Amino acid sequence: MFSFFKKKKPEAETPAAVEPAVPAAPQAEAQAEQPGFLRRLFGGGDEAPAAPEEVVAGASTAYEGQLFPETAERPVSEAEARRSWMSRLKAGLAKTSSNLSLLFVGARIDEDLYEELESALLMSDAGMDATQFLLDNLRRKVKEDKLLDAAAVKVALKGLLVDLLRPLEKPLELGRHEPLVMMIAGVNGAGKTTTIGKLAKHMQRHEQSVLLAAGDTFRAAAREQLMVWGQRNNVTVISQQSGDPAAVAFDAVQSGKARGVDVVMVDTAGRLPTQLHLMEELKKIRRVIGKGMEDAPHEILLVIDGNTGQNALAQVKAFDDALQLTGLVITKLDGTAKGGILAAIARTRPVPVYFIGVGEKLEDLQPFSADEFAEALLG
Length: 379
Known about the structure:
By secondary structure, this protein is of the alpha/beta class. The chain folds into 2 domains: 81-167, Four Helix Bundle (Hemerythrin (Met), subunit A); 172-369, P-loop containing nucleotide triphosphate hydrolases (Rossmann fold, 3-Layer(aba) Sandwich), CATH 3.40.50. It has helices at residues 26-32, 54-57, 78-92, 94-101, 111-123, 127-144, 150-165, 192-205, 220-233, 245-259, 276-292, 310-323, 341-348, 370-378, and strands spanning 61-63, 180-186, 210-215, 236-239, 263-268, 299-305, 327-331, 353-357, 365-367. Helix 6 (127-144) crosses helix 13 (341-348), helix 7 runs antiparallel to helix 14 and helix 8 (192-205) packs parallel to helix 9. The two termini are 22 Å apart. Residues 352-365 form the SRP54-type proteins GTP-binding domain.
């Protein structure tokens, strides 16, 4: 189902097996509590730590997930999987779709229809710019093609929506770097940690080994949640109870290189873009990751709650200005009447949308397709 991934070419040599991390002995734990034992060189700046081996010694703990081995799954054909996904996508976007599709039922092609379309698009949070763009082009197409019935106008609008959303359609390619380092950002409640767990599972299905970094050192619940995902997926999680999140990110990159993993995903603390000091910390994490590996992070993803509407567009602008985003993951599109936000993003800040989510299950997170999205809205 996930052919969008670019698989890494097989290597000539098989990497040596990595021994599971051994928990620190009680003496080491006692040492860890002593002042200065966990001191980092970049506590006040961006310098990389001199001894990344502290991942084992006590600065961070490597949790080897072994509690939930993967269960056997019934083989599903590509066609069956896509039908299932389209069904869930249409159900998730039903509120947005009903506000648009019902306008064409028995409608006349007149100014009233255009006004109702304008209102419906604005209510879906498509934004004034995208709404005006779509309606201007729809008027032109209706005139040029001499469209006389509402069904034909609906098809024309769907085609224009696909063209608008197409620049957002970009596959996430794996295997470009060893490891591929991904930094994941977002505000609290957007579903960031859950999305990381789902992405890790998808990557494993495409023969990619994954290591996770619990960079949210402020919330114990966030670290525990990520560790649970690591246990379910049999994925190592680099974590630290307190301290500099940049240190955890750096240690994870170093550990990923040493272990020969394919993908390192770094979770970060949720924050609002108006919290400038926290946004500066995100910039620092990015810089320190770059010291751990040249050109890293290779992907910087922002996870967005689809229910937030125009606020989501403000988040994209703020995080893109601060971090230069490479992609978006839009979650919780199920049950919202604000699905038009993708049109606003495409028109205002066209950062690629790698994935969209319409539920809690693993299969409810799928690659974004402009054709599928437009079909779910206007099919």
